[in-house]
Fold:
Amino acid sequence: MSPATELDDPRLAAWRDDTPGVANRVHLNNAGAALPPRPVVRAVVAHLEREAAIGGYEAADEAAGQVHDAYAAVAALLGAEPRNIAMVENATVGFNQALAAFDFQPGDEIVTSRNDYISNQLAYLSLSRRLGVVVRRAADLPEGGVDPESVRELLQSRRARLLAITWIPTNSGLVQPVEALGALAAAAGVPYLIDACQAVGQMPIDVRRLRCDFLSATARKFLRGPRGIGFLYVSDEALARDMYPLHLDMRGGHWRLADEFELAPDARRFENWEFAYALVLGLGAAARYASTIGLGEIERRARALAARLRHGLGDLPGVRLLDHGRELAAIVTAEVPGWHAPELVQALRARGVNTSAAMREYAVIDMDGKRAATALRLSPTYYNTTDELDAALQALRSLRR
Ligand SMILES: Cc1ncc(COP(=O)(O)O)c(C=O)c1O
Structure:
């Protein structure tokens, strides 16, 4: 791809035209929060303006059709139905709402990976401390990523109550084999919860192939939605088993008699009544935008840019690439000699390049295994250009210590 050919591509030109932020920054922090496209910004701002003009509750009533469309757009992204989607504040809330649907007893086991996301690991450890749940982390393959055979063995336990896996952990490009693990969970009859926070908007997702009961995600990352909103997919099977979160509110339950309630029939039983309508509409717009481009196309382009970036970083003296695993997504991590990553992030930001830092405490098992205290994280997506990658590499060269 020569830069001239690349910018001649009318699709890339249109994507960048839709993205005001690319005029200001080389944005390689899409795993943190991507630059939203114009339709997302318009959807959020237009609803806030209606709230100001006619009142928040009244604007919500007026937007009921658009809100329904947002559920449909998110569901379509996953191969699900609107009834399977709960809109929640963020991925962590979605994940914890799913965990709260299990009545864990002392000695019950959560089977997970050594690379699950920090907040998920903290939730498992909290369940361990508070309820006596046992956390079983499957072994990794020598090349990185969870060993499915180890997961299969752990799922044989009588006490295995849940398989919980983070698809793409935040602190490296690793892609876990979530579809193969879904087949193992189904064979063992163990419910399956996937954290798809970094996968949504970065690659195609089909919950039927994953065979998961729950899948959590957020809007602001590769999906390019607004901050402060996320969602939880709940399978029809989990709904039919009457699974619901421990702390229901008036959205999820209907109070019929003094001592009785009924569950909402759909995934909305995992929501709260107070609802960020503007952000939900922004999330819907982001889901439609991604679907229009095509998730296969997004994945191909994002991964090609990431591979190019890894190659360029590998050529910089002393830089150590930290992404391990059979399959790598568009998250690139590297240790840069002489730099504490958060300071390098600031130095790059001062040069107009947005990146982020992966810290040891975000992923203690993984980072200790790699003997890395901090790492620079660069996460390109389809609207980035090879020119931008070269600019980031040039900035890194100029900051060599
Ligand atoms: C893999 C993964 N899971 C979960 C989260 C948490 O998402 P949120 O901040 O929306 O709760 C993140 C955020 O970086 C993440 O990378």
The CA atoms of residues 50 and 324 lie 48 Å apart. The longest helix spans residues 295-314. Residues 41-292 form a domain with the Aspartate Aminotransferase; domain 2 fold (CATH 3.40.640.10).
